[in-house]
Amino acid sequence: MVRVSVLNDALNSIVNAERRGKRQVLIRPSSKVIVKFLSVMQRHGYIGEFEIVDDHRAGKIVVQLNGRLNKTGVISPRFNIQVTQIESWVNLLLPSRGFGYLILTTSAGIVDHEEARRKHVGGKILGYVY
Fold first, then answer.
1. CB 125 within 8 A of CB 75
2. Does the chain have fewer CB atoms within 10 Å around its N or its C terminus?
3. Residue 104 has what pLDDT?
4. DSSP letter string over 34-82?
């Protein structure tokens, strides 16, 4: 099988390990997008520490889970989102107001929807976490 989305595989393995009650999960292969996505998740307290293991191949990431994650996923295709459209996408994808985050890739880096609104930048939607 060919991997279509490395980010999708990584987030699915995190959700599955979280549902099984595991304390840590190994993600492979690694990518810069996965690392930035995980750092946004870590900033909001959905996961604990994560460590990048360089094996001179595609790399691995060991993520410490803390039991606060309900669901995370990828939005494919990566739709363009203007600043004015962020609120409508939040209503579509997140379960309730003030709960969870959309994660966008913008010219200001990979940020959550609140930070994108503060910086007044739009971009492409990567995924969601709640």
1. yes
2. N
3. 96
4. HHHHHHHHHHTTSEEEEEEE--SSS-EEEEEE-S----EEE-SS--EE-
Beta-bridge partners for 29: none
pLDDT tens-digit map of 37-91: 999 999 999 999 999 999 999 999 999 999 999 999 999 999 999 999 999 999 9
Q: Is 47 exposed, middle or buried (0-12, 13-18, 19+ CB in 10 A)?
A: buried
Q: What is the pLDDT of residue 3?
A: 86
pLDDT of residue 16: 97
Predicted TM-score of the model (pTM):
0.94
d(C-alpha 70, C-alpha 100), whole Å: 9
Q: Which residues of 105-130 are buried (b: 16+ CB within 10 A; e: fewer)?
A: bbeeebbbbebbbeeebbbebbbbbb
